[in-house]
Specification:
The structure is a single chain. This protein has two helices and 33 strands. The chain has 397 residues and is an all-beta fold. A hairpin with a 4-residue loop joins strand 11 and strand 12. The two termini are 29 Å apart. Pfam families: WD40.
C-alpha cells in the first residue's frame, strides 16, 4: 500500500530576509514507496510525461502518475538488482524496458504491468546498462560475464530487437565492467560504451559488428566512469561523472578534453552555505543554449544545482536547492522543468521528482509567483526507518 503525505507546513520566513542568488523549491508531497526498508535507484518518465517508472532495491519497478504521485502498479520478474530502466519512444508508448544483474533484459506493458519481452544474456552475465536505437532496431547492453573459473569477460552485447537475435559481442575493448552504453543522439549508428577501466569507446554499429573493424575511437578518462550524457546543439559535447566524484567535459567528435574538474565537490561546496557536497547525482542540460548543471547532494538529503562554465572551467554558485524532503542520499532526479522559465513537461509549476536511500519519492514545486522562498514539508517527513543498514552508494553502477 502506498502512503502519500499531502499535509504541508509553511516554514516561517522573515519579511525582511535578504535576497538570495538561488531558488529554493517547495516540497509538494512525499511518497514512502516501501516504508523505508528499500530505496529508490532510478526515476524515468514516459514520453508524454504522464507516468514515471521507479526502480527499487527490492528488484521491483513501480509506476506512478507523474502529476499526482498516484500509485498505478508494479512490474516484478527480475531476480537481482534492476540496474537501469527506460521507456520506449512514441512508437511504443506503453513499453518499459529494464536490465538487471540477473543477466536479463525485459520489456513490460505498463497498461497491464505484465512482461511482454525477454532476452537472457546468460546466467553468468550481469547487465549494468542498455540503450536502444529505433533507427537500426539494435539493443545494446553493457555487461560483465563471470565464467566457471572466475575469469571475467567485459562485454558490449548487441541484439536485433525484432527477433531477439544476438548480432555482436564486443569483448576486446574494455578490461573492467562496462557501466554505461549509449547510442549517440543525432548520429546514424554510433554507440558509446564507458567502463570502470576509465575508457570510453565509440563503435560504428553498421554491418557485421566487431572490435577490430568497428572501434572508431577511444577516450581515456583515467578513472572509473559512473555516468555519461550528451548535450549541445548537435550533441557533440559529452559530460562524464566518475565513481570518485570528478567531472569532465569532452568534445567526443574531436576526442578533446574541454574541462576537467578533479576537485568538483570542493568547487561545488564553495557555491552554497549548506554542508559539504558529498556526491553527484547527475547532470542536467538545456539543449537550446548548451547550458549544463551538475547536481550535487549531501548525505543528509539536500540537493543543489550548480552551473558549469566549462569554457571558463568554473563551477558556479547553486542556482536551485531542494531541501527538507529526504533524510538520506538522493539517488535519482527527474526534472519536469528546466531551471525557471524552461518547461519540459505539461505539469506547470512542478520542478521535478527525487528518490533516495530513505525510500521516498519527493515532488518539488516551482512557484515563480512568490517573492518569498518557502520550504514546505510534511509534518511526518522526519520519521525515519526503524532499521538501518550499511549501503554502498556505487553498487550497482
Amino acid at each position: 500500500m502506498e502512503a502519500t503525505e499531502m499535509e504541508v507546513e509553511h516554514q516561517s520566513e522573515s519579511s525582511n530576509s535578504s535576497p538570495t542568488s538561488f531558488k529554493r523549491f517547495a516540497l509538494k508531497n512525499s511518497i514512502q514507496t516501501n516504508f523505508g526498508d528499500d530505496y529508490v535507484f532510478q526515476i524515468t518518465p514516459k514520453e508524454d510525461w504522464t507516468t514515471m517508472a521507479v526502480s527499487l532495491s527490492n528488484n521491483a519497478v513501480k509506476l506512478y502518475s507523474l502529476s499526482t504521485g498516484q500509485y498505478l502498479g508494479e512490474c516484478r520478474g527480475h531476480t537481482s538488482t534492476v540496474n537501469e530502466i527506460a521507456f520506449a519512444d512514441f512508437s511504443s508508448p506503453h513499453l518499459l524496458q529494464s536490465c538487471s544483474s540477473d543477466g536479463t533484459l525485459r520489456a513490460w506493458d505498463t497498461r497491464t504491468f505484465q512482461q511482454v519481452s525477454f532476452i537472457n544474456a546468460g546466467s553468468s552475465e550481469e547487465i549494468f546498462s542498455f540503450s536502444f536505437s529505433g533507427e537500426s532496431n539494435l539493443l545494446a547492453a553493457g555487461c560483465k560475464s563471470q565464467n566457471s573459473v572466475k575469469c571475467s569477460k567485459l562485454q558490449v552485447l548487441l541484439w536485433d530487437w525484432r527477433n531477439k537475435k544476438q548480432v555482436a559481442c564486443l569483448e576486446e575493448s574494455h578490461i573492467e565492467d562496462v557501466t554505461q552504453v549509449r547510442f549517440i543522439p543525432g548520429t546514424q549508428n554510433k554507440l558509446l560504451s564507458a567502463s570502470v577501466d576509465g575508457l570510453m569507446c565509440i563503435f560504428d554499429t553498421t554491418g557485421d559488428i566487431n572490435d577490430d573493424d568497428h572501434l572508431l575511437s577511444v577516450i581515456n578518462v583515467g578513472t572509473s566512469i559512473g555516468k555519461i550524457g550528451f548535450f549541445g546543439h548537435d550533441y557533440q559535447k559529452l559530460w562524464c561523472l566518475t565513481h570518485i566524484e570528478t567531472l569532465s567535459i569532452w568534445d567526443w567528435k574531436e576526442e578533446k578534453l574541454e574541462a576537467d574538474f578533479q576537485e568538483a565537490r570542493s568547487l561545488a561546496s564553495d557555491g552554497w552555505t549548506r554542508d559539504h557536497v558529498d556526491y553527484f547525482v547527475d547532470c542536467h542540460c538545456l539543449a537550446e543554449d548548451d547550458r549544463l548543471w551538475v547536481i550535487g547532494g549531501t548525505n543528509a538529503g539536500t540537493v543543489g544545482y550548480f552551473p558549469i562554465n566549462y569554457s571558463g572551467r568554473e563551477i558556479g554558485p547553486s542556482e536551485a536547492i531542494l531541501e527538507g524532503g529526504h533524510t538520506g542520499v538522493v539517488r535519482s532526479i527527474l526534472p519536469t522543468s528546466g531551471l525557471p522559465g524552461h518547461s519540459l513537461s505539461p505539469n506547470k509549476g512542478m520542478f521535478g521528482w527525487t528518490g533516495g536511500e530513505d525510500g521516498r519519492l519527493c515532488c518539488w514545486l516551482s512557484d515563480e509567483t512568490s517573492d518569498v522562498n518557502l520550504a514546505w514539508i510534511s509534518s511526518t517527513l522526519a520519521m525515519k526507518p526503524t532499521k538501518t543498514r550499511k549501503r554502498n552508494r556505487h553498487q550497482p553502477y
